[in-house]
Amino acid sequence: MKYLKRYPVENIKNVRDLGGVPTIYGNVTNWGKFIRSASLDDSKDCDIKYLIDLGITTVIDLRREGEIDKSLESHKKITDNFDYHNVSLAGDREFRQEEIDMIISRKLSVGASYRNLIDNYKGVREIMEIMAGAEGSILFHCQEGKDRTGMISMILMGIADVSKSDIIADYEISSAYLGYIERYEKSEDWSVFRITDPYNMREAYEYIIRKYGGFYEYLDYAKVDVKTIDKLRDMMIN
C-alpha cells in the first residue's frame, strides 16, 4: 500500500496519492501524506478500515453543505472515525443556468470557472490551516474528486515546486478513473463537465501565475500564514 499511486478502495472512486512526483528542484513528493478522492458517501466498513490502515486521521469535505447527506450511515462512520471537516471550496455559490449554458456552448471554459474556487480566499485559508495542523495523513475530496479536489491538489503541488506538466497530468487522469472516458463521447454536451481536459488545469495554473506571481504569493494574498505555508511544503517534500 505504501507505494500505490491509485488506491484500490472498493466503494470510493478516484482515490489517489500525491506522492511520488518529482519537483523541479530534485525532490520527490511524499507518499501517504495527502490523498485525494471522490465522495465517501458509498463507503462501507471495509473502506473505512482501508483508510485507517493508510494512516488517514483527517478528512476534508470540499462540498457545499447542501450536497452532503448527513443521514447516511457512511457519513456517521466518517465523522466517528476521522477528524472530519466540511469546508466548501465553492462557498455557497452554485452554477447558474446561464453559466452552464455558456460552458456547454464553449463560450466559457471550465478552466475559467475555476477562478471562483481559486479566489475563495477564506475557504482556501481554512483548508490549508486544517491540513497544516493535522497529525496523520489527510484525505480531501469533493463529489467526484476532480474539480474542487483538483484545485487543492494544484495548490499543494504548486508550493512543493512540482512542474506545471505534472500538475496538469495529475488533474487530467480523473475522468479516466471515474470511468467517464468509456461511458461518454466527447461530442456530448455534458462531457465538458465530465472530462478533465488538461487545458482546464493549464488555464487555472496560469491564472495563479499571472494574477499572483506564484503559489507562495497566492497563499500569502489569501492571508495564509507563512508558517502554515512552510509546514505544508515540508509535509509535501520532507
Describe the structure.
This protein is an alpha/beta fold and 238 residues long. The protein contains 14 helices and five strands. The protein has helices at 45-53, 73-81, 97-104, 110-113, 115-118, 121-133, 148-159, 164-172, 174-177, 180-183, 191-194, 198-212, 215-221, 226-237, and strands at 16-17, 34-37, 56-61, 83-86, 137-141. A five-stranded mixed beta sheet has the order 1-2-5-3-4, sandwiched between helices. The model has no long low-confidence stretch (mean pLDDT 94).
List the helices and strands and how they pair.
Blueprint: E1 16-17, E2 34-37, H1 45-53, E3 56-61, H2 73-81, E4 83-86, H3 97-104, H4 110-113, H5 115-118, H6 121-133, E5 137-141, H7 148-159, H8 164-172, H9 174-177, H10 180-183, H11 191-194, H12 198-212, H13 215-221, H14 226-237
Parallel strand pairs: 2-5, 3-4, 3-5
Antiparallel strand pairs: 1-2
